[in-house]
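Friendly challenge for the regulars: who can give me the structure tokens for this chain first? No prize, just bragging rights.
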Amino acid sequence: MTTVIRAADLRDSIAAALQFISYYHPADYISHLARAYEREQSPAAKDAMAQILTNSRMCAEGHRPICQDTGIVNVFLDIGLNVRLEGFDDGLDAVVNAGVRQGYLDPDNVLRASIVDDPIFARKNTRDNTPAVININLVPGNTVSVKVAAKGGGSENKSKFIMMNPSDNLVDWVLATLPTMGAGWCPPGMLGIGVGGTAEKAMLMAKEALMDDIDMSDLLARGPQNKLEELRIELFEKVNALGIGAQGLGGLSTVLDVKIKTYPCHAASKPVAMIPNCAATRHAHFVLDGSGPAFLDPPSLDLWPQVHWQPDAARSRRVNLDTLTREEVASWKPGDTLLLSGELLTGRDAAHKRIADMLARGETLPVDFTNRVIYYVGPVDPVRDEVMGPAGPTTATRMDTFTETMLAQTGLIAMIGKGERGPVAIEAIKKHRSASLMAVGGAAYLVAKAIKAARVVAFEDLGMEAIYAFTVQDMPVTVAVDAQGISVHQTGPAQWKARIAQMPQIPITST
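First reply, four minutes later:
Bragging rights claimed.
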């Protein structure tokens, strides 16, 4: 029996799914993160997870993005051979991209446009987050099964691939590779691993694995039933024993699950791909059967734990950004929690590149960074009565190559991003007695609530990468690297790895 699938139904379904996943975490992610939160013993990691859980509930209630990076769209289409496509005169890709465009430009919940074209030279923003990355598979049946994901750049950039020898050990490679990924992928999340096929097949399987339900608690409760499940548990336990923890601060939970897909491969080969999913896990699945567009059912807010993070002045230091001095910055210690108030400047990759080019040409900058703090962020545009849309941090290491220039030539005294800093940046921070601060990735809407005023002050043509001046009140951050060059992303995981090695196993299923 042939089923007719109309182009408008696929377009509208994709648009609705992208809106849905922008503000609703999957229920399986929330339940596993809540378990991890309850068992966490690291105060820093527990606080980070509390921010993520609070942010998640706020987004579910307010229908605003979980993360400011609303992702590059991945669409997997399983098209039944007994399906007739109607209205696809411009091709299947055009319909999918029309859905992406419609979803991202929805005026009630505008999503950030992050896609640039071409990727090598102009890198000009397409302004509507198109095109999507589309994978098509023809299968038996008379329906179209669709998986839609929005993959953030911070986690996508940590994708790893290796062409192993057949006798090489997969577990050893994962345990050696994961620490090199840093914290820019915003743990705790999930690992997708693809083994076999060819290079591109392994990468595709790793990406698809991230769309499977998180079920590690059930797997541990019933026990493994085959060698692949045994391997998943082994990797889950050994990765968490590394002590990397939430946001890389050190703790018990680095991953909530490990998913593995395999495919036959050449006798001489063993392709292995690993891709992490971040704290803003976003994916959905729907089926078109010819009856019209598919819309997902909203989850019940009862699924979220009763975690309501609030700024705590009793254990955090309040900082006035408008009177901040180098001496005060130098007094901060790794792991200190701060609540920032006053004016904050923003800037990320494109702005830093333009600033460096201007300085190299001897030109005057349009913004005075003297004694200022810069926030690495590309925010979502505001809607309704918002001052600013979700505005969480971007990966700090991408700005490492600019750090010496910014500290030496602009008067900047501190920076805010997510994740660790690399050796080059740490050396510059130590040299100039500066500091690098960390905001929680995956808590973008929560952070945005601290922004009380916002205006573009330079490089408006860069869109979400323009330089803003934010007026903030009690914006929560943690000192990641202090003026001595000591990094909490080095000390925290090392301490917790040692502590975990001495601990009796704590069951993941405890609540």
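The domain at 154-279 is CATH 3.30.1330 (60s Ribosomal Protein L30; Chain: A;). The first helix runs from residue 7 to 23. Your move, everyone else.
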